[in-house]
TrEMBL record, chain A:
It is found in: Membrane. It holds the Pfam family CcmB. Keywords: Membrane, Transmembrane, Transmembrane helix. Its main location: membrane. It is a multi-pass membrane protein. GO terms for molecular function: heme transmembrane transporter activity. This is Heme exporter protein CcmB. One of its GO terms (cellular component) is membrane. One of its GO terms (biological process) is cytochrome complex assembly.
UniProtKB/TrEMBL annotation, chain B:
This is Heme exporter protein C. The lineage of its organism: Bacteria, Pseudomonadati, Bacteroidota, Cytophagia, Cytophagales. It comes from Hymenobacter telluris. It comes from the Bacteria. It is found in: Membrane. The chain crosses the membrane at residues 43-61, 82-99, 111-127, 139-159, 188-207. It holds the Pfam family Cytochrom_C_asm. The keyword Cytoplasm does not apply. Belongs to the CcmC/CycZ/HelC family. Required for the export of heme to the periplasm for the biogenesis of c-type cytochromes. It is a multi-pass membrane protein. One of its GO terms (biological process) is cytochrome complex assembly. InterPro entries: Cyt_c_assembly, Cyt_c_biogenesis_CcmC, Cyt_c_biogenesis_CcsA/CcmC. PANTHER family: CYTOCHROME B_B6 PROTEIN-RELATED, HEME EXPORTER PROTEIN C. GO terms for cellular component: plasma membrane.
Length: 213, 223
């Protein structure tokens, strides 16, 4: 599995592109808000941040399977069991999204101000979100890669599936912004962890079937 | 006839629901007034949808274990029936909302959850239509169906409980404890749930028979 992870790591051509993507999106947001003068109010700040993360996550993960050539998939198939491939892909995507989210958050804080009152909760929430996005989108991109119009399909399939997660994430990060005590967001966080586990387990079980075709 | 007793039961229960639902006494509650009768039509839709979607997932799992065109048709038609029930549920809910909450659509977690679930299953139909190879279409849509069910059900049964909702039973309460269903209403409500659920299965069965026949006709034309 580690070896598979390294294989993924070697073809990280998309990484720099994604970093630029996040950076330029944040900068565009900054420019549009600076027209009105100053930083956006906290709810808008929150919503914008998650929208940026959502779109960069979809773009980053879509690269994973769509760029894979048929021959290489066959090669993996002879080397390792499918479960190892999906776990490695999820792990790689999680690390990738985590990195993107942290860089994006850093830039975002610099240009649009920092209204967060509970940084630990906020960063932890972002990490959970990256993990959740990775596990949902990895299987979706695997499904979309099999179809003809995969790019549209990736968005159509992925967005509705991510909304439950996104709702919880936005709620918790709103709590972190307002500096509410931990108890207020505890149940949402637990549900989020459970949702991540469910999605991960289902992808783990289903991927072998997907791969055979 | 022996295997079709449940269809007769569905007809009887639904006739009973329609008659008793409109004629039996209901509790006089403020705001709700007579609209409380919609309970017999709106709520059972969601029960029916959940059960028929569970059936769809069950056939998808069986398809993955043992791929036959029949199982694919069953799971596809069951999912389509689920979508139909969901749309009717949204429509009856919307009418109810207009007369009690004063708007066709409100920003309520259950409404949003239902709308998103419809989007998820709409995506299922789009996914199905974007394959040309039948076996691949069947397998991949079965995979997506299972995945979608696992992420869509929290929308219905977990998330609304965590937030405040205009619906009864939100904010941590189980759905029926707060709803002052009196004994008269129970007498209609439970048969209504069973009746609509049976109707959903009946619809799915008829639809999959039509689909199977179409497949057979198509295969004959090829020969």
């Amino acid at each position: 599995m580690l070896k598979d992870f390294r294989l993924e790591w070697r073809q990280r051509a998309a990484l720099n592109g994604m970093l630029l993507y996040v950076g330029s999106t944040v900068f565009v947001c900054f420019l549009s808000f600076s027209l009105k003068g100053g930083t956006p109010p906290a709810p808008a700040w929150n919503a914008l941040f998650w929208i940026i993360l959502l779109f960069s996550a979809v773009n980053a993960v879509a690269k994973g399977f769509l760029q894979e050539s048929r021959g290489r998939m066959l090669y993996y198939y002879t080397l390792v069991p499918p479960q190892a491939v999906i776990l490695a892909k999820i792990a790689y995507n999680a690390v990738l999204l985590l990195g993107l989210a942290m860089v994006g958050l850093g830039l975002y804080l610099v240009v649009l101000g920092n209204p967060v009152q509970d940084p630990t909760l906020f960063v932890g929430n972002v990490a959970l979100g990256a993990l959740g996005f990775a596990s949902t989108l990895t299987l979706v991109s695997g499904i979309a890669a099999k179809a003809t119009n995969s790019n549209t399909l990736m968005v159509v399939l992925g967005f509705p599936l991510m909304i439950p997660m996104l709702l919880l994430l936005i709620k918790v990060s709103k709590n972190a912004l307002d500096g509410l005590e931990f108890e207020a967001s505890q149940s949402s966080l637990l549900t989020l962890v459970a949702l991540n586990l469910i999605v991960g387990a289902v992808s783990y079980l289903l991927f072998p079937f997907l791969w055979r075709s | 006839m022996k295997n079709n007793w449940w269809k007769g039961l569905a007809v009887i229960l639904l006739l009973y629901t329609a008659a008793a639902g409109f004629l039996m006494p209901v509790p006089r509650l403020a705001i709700l007034n007579e609209t409380i009768r919609n309970l017999y039509f709106h709520v059972p839709m969601w029960f029916g949808m959940t059960f028929i979607l569970i059936a769809s997932v069950y056939y998808s799992i069986r398809y993955l274990r043992n791929p036959t065109p029949q199982l694919d048709i069953l799971s596809h038609e069951a999912a389509k029936t689920g979508i139909l029930m969901g749309i009717v549920g949204l429509a009856t809910g919307s009418i109810w909302a207009k007369y009690t909450w004063g708007a066709w659509w409100t920003n309520d977690p259950k409404l949003n959850g239902a709308a998103i679930a419809m989007l998820i299953y709409g995506a299922y139909l789009v996914l199905r239509s974007s394959f040309t190879d039948e076996q691949q279409r069947a397998r991949i849509s079965a995979i997506y169906n299972i995945f979608a069910f696992a992420t869509a059900m929290p929308l219905f049964y977990i998330l609304p409980r965590l937030t405040d909702s205009l619906h009864p039973g939100a904010g941590g309460n189980p759905a029926f404890a707060k709803y002052d269903l009196d004994d008269n209403m129970r007498l209609v409500f439970y048969p209504a749930v069973i009746g609509w659920t049976l109707l959903a299965f009946w619809l799915a069965q008829v639809a999959s028979r039509i689909a199977t026949l179409k497949l057979k006709v198509y295969e004959k034309q090829l020969v």
